[in-house]
TrEMBL record:
Protein name: NADPH:quinone reductase
Residue ranges of domain Enoyl reductase (ER) in the record: 10-319
InterPro entries: ADH-like_C, ADH-like_N, ER, GroES-like_sf, NAD(P)-bd_dom_sf, Zinc-ADH_QOR/CCCR
SUPFAM superfamilies the record matches: GroES-like, NAD(P)-binding Rossmann-fold domains
UniProt keyword annotations, A-Z: NADP
Pfam families: ADH_N, ADH_zinc_N
Length: 322
């Protein structure tokens, strides 16, 4: 099979278009013919050597959509989708024509999504669901402030929160595009500047938000804490620009704030499958929408796809295998 592989860490130039043995199914695994696979910023970071646990040589890629071609009879020809923090890191990933996954990793993709759309869901929506639903347990009627709402994860948080009946306040450096799913769904927008806490409290009767989902972290961390209502929940998934942070501990415990870290990379492709399955109803009912696909590349041009993501392309970048 054709695949992308890297044998050393570096910029996208280290990616090679190679021929590798086609994987075979066994009693515990199935083989998926990958139709499309997105490229995430974490894939670019993986190739650059950002993650210490990556084993070389490696085919990268976390998200995928495809068809089961080898495995249990009940799954043959089924259209499936998935993601995982192990594929592309400690086991070969999705930027290849075929992918071997544990049977527990199989999840049927929504019939309403194309393979390209389905391949762009995984990482962003899993970490959004994990934080919003599993950890914060966001309830209908609550207010959630989403820092970085215009990004991939932020946009997924907006959609999931609205589907659960929450009020969503977008916090970003610029207004969200009204033509995007997230831009159409938000209830209010607050610029991320020195007045953000004041403005958000004006929108919440002085109380603050029950949930703050901070997709930026680092330089935004103290701001995130300032937006939380008493006994509010603050979710952190990143540390942009600042790994070590300081905050007023007295204010923190007086507010009885709950601080929660969220890391979907800890979920392997099998552990992520139940969350992918939980998302299916939202896409099939129309409560959730696929993000915009900014660019598509054939597998042999995957290096260009990585360069596009590294350059900060807005919208999702997808590699197609056929």
């Amino acid at each position: 099979m054709k695949a992308i592989q890297f044998k050393s860490f570096g910029n996208p130039e280290v990616l090679e278009y190679v021929e590798l043995p086609t994987p075979q199914a066994d009693a515990q695994h199935a083989v998926v013919r990958v139709v499309a696979a997105s490229v995430n910023p974490s894939d670019v970071k993986n190739v650059s050597g950002h993650f210490e646990h990556t084993v070389l040589p490696r085919t990268p890629g976390r998200d995928f959509s495809g068809v089961v071609v080898d495995g249990p009879q009940a799954w043959l020809n089924a259209e499936v989708w998935g993601t995982g923090g192990d594929i592309g890191f400690t086991r070969d990933g999705t930027h290849a024509e075929f992918l071997k996954v544990p049977l527990a990793a199989l999840s049927r993709k929504p019939s309403t999504l194309t393979h390209a759309q389905a391949s762009a869901i995984g990482v962003n929506f899993v970490v959004a669901w994990l934080g919003t639903v599993e950890y914060a347990k966001l309830q209908a009627g609550e207010t959630i402030a989403v820092i970085g709402a215009g990004g991939g994860v932020g946009g997924a948080v907006v959609q999931i929160a609205k589907a659960r009946g929450a009020r969503v306040i977008a916090v970003d450096r610029r207004p969200l595009d009204a033509d995007t799913p997230a831009g159409r769904l938000i209830d209010a927008y607050v610029p991320f500047d020195e007045h953000v806490a004041e403005r958000l409290r004006e929108l919440t009767g002085g109380a603050g938000a029950e949930v703050v989902y901070d997709t930026v972290g680092g330089v935004a961390f103290e701001t995130a804490l300032s937006l939380a209502k008493r006994r509010g929940r603050v979710l952190e998934i990143s540390s942009t620009g600042k790994r070590r942070v300081e905050f007023d501990l007295i204010d923190f415990y007086h507010n009885e704030t709950q601080l929660l870290g969220v890391d979907s990379a800890k979920l392997g492709v099998a552990e992520s499958a139940p969350l992918m399955t939980a998302l299916v109803e939202g896409f099939e009912s129309g409560k959730l929408s696929a993000p915009a696909i900014a660019q598509e590349f054939p597998l042999e041009r995957a290096r260009e796809a990585y360069e596009a993501v590294a350059a900060g392309t807005r919208g999702r970048v997808v590699v197609r295998m056929q």
